[in-house]
Amino acid sequence: MRRIKGGKVKRIQVTFTEEQWSLIERFKGVMGSEDAEVIRNIILAWLAEKSVITERVKVMLRGEKPEEGSTRPPHQG
């Protein structure tokens, strides 16, 4: 992983069909100007919509450690 401005960065390669890419390109200028920026913002918007980000923050605010690789809070029991 590379470091940019104090944080670690993970680069990945993804493949889209022409139809998928055509849809994604419609968001250029709205969700970013570069391909990577648009894709990143689409993913972050989806995670926010599904409350994944909110749930992880709630877990961390309760002082619990989020489960590795999990998008759900630890079992309450």
Structural notes for this entry:
- With 77 residues, this protein is mainly α.
- The protein has a domain at 2-50.
- It has helices at residues 18-25, 35-49, 52-61, and strands spanning 2-4, 7-9.
- Strands 1-2 form a two-stranded antiparallel ribbon.
- Strand 1 and strand 2 form a beta hairpin.
Put the structure in a nutshell.
With about 80 residues, the protein is mainly α. The protein has helices at about 20-25, 35-50, 50-60; strands at about 1-5, 5-10.
Which assembly state applies to the chains in this document? Answer: single chain
Q: List the strand order in the largest sheet.
A: 1-2
Distance between the termini: 37 Å
Q: Helix segment count?
A: 3
Structural class: mainly alpha
Topology, element by element:
Layout: E1 2-4, E2 7-9, H1 18-25, H2 35-49, H3 52-61
Antiparallel strand pairs: 1-2
List keywords for this structure.
77 residues; mainly alpha; two-stranded antiparallel ribbon; 3 helices; 43% helix; 8% strand
